[in-house]
Design brief:
- α1 packs across α4 (101-107), α2 packs parallel to α6 (166-183) and α6 (166-183) runs antiparallel to α7.
- This protein has 219 residues and is of the alpha+beta class.
- The chain has helices at 11-22, 26-39, 68-74, 101-107, 157-161, 166-183, 206-214; strands at 44-50, 56-61, 110-116, 122-129, 132-140, 144-150, 188-193, 196-201.
- The protein is built from 7 helices and 8 strands.
- The chain starts with 10 loop residues before the first helix and ends in a 5-residue tail after the last helix.
- The mean pLDDT is 93.
- β1 and β2 (56-61) form a beta hairpin.
- The structure holds adenosine-5'-triphosphate and magnesium ion.
Length: 219
């Protein structure tokens, strides 16, 4: 009798492998969360980092927010509001569409997603640990979404080992922020790193935003 060599991988392992394709370092998480904030129509986005994003990445926006049902769906794999048919693939107007980012980030971190939809003063706080939804609670505040990503790669030590110094990871994030601040000059951006305010750009004319960004820590 021959012993099979081929095995079906566990869901947990599949999630971590898939996550590796979307999330390779803190900067890729910042990129995905900024894309989501822009797709949600935000015009005010705050990014909060600790240790070059290794211990905390938080992106707070004032976009559409999500209902509780949508938020619970959003953190699962292949769930998106941006496409639904094959034809939609030929007419994409959003930055994301794969329905992968939040699930991938959740698979390799401790994530909290707080979201309050339009015209409501209360919403939902989800706590997710390595894709497991640990807690759902009510939360107050103003419209928008805040995603915080703590202890990146806590459950994938091999990936954690490949991260560079805090300073280098921070530089990669600044590079991502530079592109977003230049492309979305009508959006206000704020950055905090290790409890220090690094910059605040108000909506501006494209040429004035360019001058501001290139004359700042982002250059
Ligand atoms: N900041 C946000 N504000 C409002 N809705 C959001 C926000 N972030 C995510 N969502 C919702 O959650 C869904 C899933 O987000 P996710 O980033 O995982 O996938 P996506 O943006 O659709 O595609 P991609 O994987 O290419 O980024 C989105 O389609 C959107 O409906
Ligand atoms: Mg996305």
């Amino acid at each position: 009798m021959t012993k099979n060599k081929i095995k079906i991988l566990s869901e947990d392992l599949c999630n971590k492998i898939a996550a590796g394709e979307v999330v390779d370092r803190p900067a890729s998480i910042v990129k995905e969360l900024l894309e989501n904030a822009i797709d949600a129509g935000s015009d005010e986005i705050t990014v909060i980092l600790k240790n070059g994003g290794k211990t905390l990445i938080q992106v707070v926006d004032n976009g559409t927010g999500m209902s509780r049902e949508d938020a619970i769906l959003a953190i699962q794999r292949h769930t998106t509001s941006k496409i639904s048919t094959y034809d939609d693939l030929h007419n994409i107007k959003t930055l994301g569409f794969r329905g992968e980012a939040l699930a991938s980030i959740a698979a390799v971190s401790r994530m909290e997603l707080k979201t309050i939809p339009h015209k409501q003063t209360s919403g939902t706080l989800l706590k997710i640990e390595g894709i497991v939804l640990e807690d759902i609670s009510d939360v107050g505040g103003t419209r928008g979404t805040s995603v915080s990503v703590k202890n990146l790669f806590y459950n994938t030590p091999a990936r954690r080992k490949f991260l560079k110094s805090d300073e280098t990871e921070y530089r990669y994030i600044l590079n991502v922020l530079q592109r977003f601040t230049l492309a979305y000059f009508q959006v206000s951006f704020m950055l905090y790193h290790n409890d220090q305010k690094i910059f605040e750009f108000k909506p501006n004319e494209p040429n004035l935003r360019l001058v501001e960004v290139l004359g700042s820590s982002l250059s």
